[in-house]
Amino acid sequence: MITFHTVPDAFSPAECSHLIEVARAAPAADAGLVRATTEHNLRRADLVWLDDLPDTDWVMERLIALVARANREVFDFDLTDFAESPQIARYGAEREGHFTWHSDIGEGRLAARRKLTLVTQLSDPGAYQGGTLEVWMNSNLATAPLEPGTAVLFPSFALHRVTPVTEGERFSFTVWAHGAPFR
Ligand SMILES: O=C(O)CCC(=O)C(=O)O
Ligand SMILES: [Fe+2]
């Protein structure tokens, strides 16, 4: 199985900047993990949920099309729904924003049904240092491309992390597709 599937230009640079601005304007919640625990050594990020942002129907439509196509062409998972709001995360250097090694499949009612993860880079690579998204699969460690608007998709069970941001800030956009748990 490939480490991740890349979709260049999933969003245009203008769309990425727009999403960052809309997220900035919204009140952020501190990033909790699955089951709403807040363990800052695991993850330090500010989160905004797409469902709370105005005029973002077009984003969900885009995501549905991207996931449907990638699933048809690459993954062939049994996906049934998008049970959780997509999330815009900001990792800032002021507290070394990061997310340590984890799998997105958790024990919560919704997290247990996550099957496919899609992460889109929103920030220009010049806006930050560190903050690389790494995915580990099949003895391969792969680093997600940095271009804003590039999406990577991987099975939600794959281990991945975001290394600490040491300068500036990085915004990313994550959505999960759900279905009956793997068996
Ligand atoms: O920000 C990223 O690149 C990854 C986010 C992530 O792993 C998550 O929200 O589960
Ligand atoms: Fe994750």
From TrEMBL:
<dbReference type="GO" id="GO:0005506">
    <property type="term" value="F:iron ion binding"/>
</dbReference>
<keyword id="KW-0847">Vitamin C</keyword>
<dbReference type="GO" id="GO:0031418">
    <property type="term" value="F:L-ascorbic acid binding"/>
</dbReference>
<feature type="domain" description="Fe2OG dioxygenase">
    <location>
        <begin position="82"/>
        <end position="179"/>
    </location>
</feature>
<keyword id="KW-0223">Dioxygenase</keyword>
<protein>
    <submittedName>
        <fullName>PKHD-type hydroxylase</fullName>
        <ecNumber>1.14.11.-</ecNumber>
    </submittedName>
</protein>
<keyword id="KW-0479">Metal-binding</keyword>
<dbReference type="InterPro" id="IPR006620">
    <property type="entry name" value="Pro_4_hyd_alph"/>
</dbReference>
<dbReference type="Pfam" id="PF13640">
    <property type="entry name" value="2OG-FeII_Oxy_3"/>
</dbReference>
<dbReference type="GO" id="GO:0004656">
    <property type="term" value="F:procollagen-proline 4-dioxygenase activity"/>
</dbReference>
<keyword id="KW-0560">Oxidoreductase</keyword>
<dbReference type="InterPro" id="IPR005123">
    <property type="entry name" value="Oxoglu/Fe-dep_dioxygenase_dom"/>
</dbReference>
<dbReference type="InterPro" id="IPR044862">
    <property type="entry name" value="Pro_4_hyd_alph_FE2OG_OXY"/>
</dbReference>
<dbReference type="InterPro" id="IPR045054">
    <property type="entry name" value="P4HA-like"/>
</dbReference>
<keyword id="KW-0408">Iron</keyword>
